[in-house]
Amino acid sequence: MSETSPQKILIVDDAPINRKVLGELLKNEHMVIMAKSGEQGLEKAIQHIPDLILLDVMMPDMDGYEVLQRLKANPATMGIAVIFITGLDRPEDEARGLEMGASDYITKPFHATVVRARVALHLRLARQHRLLESLANIDALTEIPNRRQFDQTFAYECRRCARAGCALSIALLDVDFFKQYNDCYGHAMGDRALHSVASVLRYGLGRGGDMGARYGGEEFVLVMPDTDNIGAIMLADKLRYDIELLALPHKKSRAAGVITVSIGIATAQGEQLSFPENILKLADERLYQAKAGGRNRVCGEDE
Ligand SMILES: Nc1nc2c(ncn2[C@@H]2O[C@H](COP(=O)(O)OP(=O)(O)OP(=O)(O)O)[C@@H](O)[C@H]2O)c(=O)[nH]1
């Protein structure tokens, strides 16, 4: 999202007049979504992942406290800032909401300038928070997800694929004779070569759920959910070939005259997905086999 694109605000209030007043106040500058009950608010929060939620406290069936509790319990919505809208102005009510994770309070009757100022403040904070989050997950040199992001995604996809009963494959890639490349062409050229290899991974992974990350040094990792061993080998071999086609000269390589990678693949299903470290270990063993077998190749099974 760019700095200037409108941010999404979800208004959850059972009183039509409150929805109307707040909507009128905010709709010119922001994208406003309405929900008229706690239940509907939760559904729309998951569907739209807004930047901010204005949440009425007193609602029949599910009150604001319960909605907030459920938002905070769901990893998809736990990061969304919530401002409580309330007619209650007793300190203990305010404290309760803030302790549960609300970011702020707006009391009724509304003062237009106060509502706009509070909303603007929390939207600004939400934008900064998201920017920091994304920077913390991106590797500065290669501009693809870093090890931290890989660890989170891999753990999440292992759990998801186990639940869905599908296979998950991972691939470990290592640049061949990279020490010699650095020694011959210099560290700055080495950095540039890593950036080029990362670009192939960034643009070469077709499916939405696939992820290519820098694993560390001159090693990369691919997460391929819902992909069996044969599919993963085919995809990895295409990427290996695309990297060779970059044709980055490497006169010290004994595998080819250009930069190449060796790749080890592991596929897991069912129970095996409960042990992510074993999947990584297997991929690493196969990477070692690919190296021992002559480099610039993919190894998906024991040779
Ligand atoms: N330029 C650059 N070099 C790096 C970076 N991270 C790791 N390296 C270098 O990558 C090289 C890895 O060398 P080795 O692990 O010995 O393996 P290799 O020379 O690639 O040989 P094989 O893996 O056996 O084909 C080392 O020289 C590291 O210094 C980086 O961010 N930039």
Automatic annotation (TrEMBL):
SMART domains: GGDEF, REC
UniProt domain GGDEF: residue ranges: 166-303
GO MF terms, alphabetically ordered: diguanylate cyclase activity
Residues annotated with 4-aspartylphosphate modification: D56
EC number: 2.7.7.65
UniProt-listed Pfam families: GGDEF (PF00990), Response_reg (PF00072)
Domain Response regulatory: 8-123
One cellular component (GO) term of this entry: plasma membrane
GO BP annotations, alphabetical order: cell adhesion involved in single-species biofilm formation; negative regulation of bacterial-type flagellum-dependent cell motility; phosphorelay signal transduction system
Keywords: Phosphoprotein
EC class of the enzyme, as a word: transferase
CDD domains per the UniProt record, alphabetical: GGDEF, REC_PA4781-like
Catalytic activity, reaction form: 2 GTP = 3',3'-c-di-GMP + 2 diphosphate
Protein name, as recorded: diguanylate cyclase
Naturally occurring in which organism (per UniProt): Iodobacter ciconiae
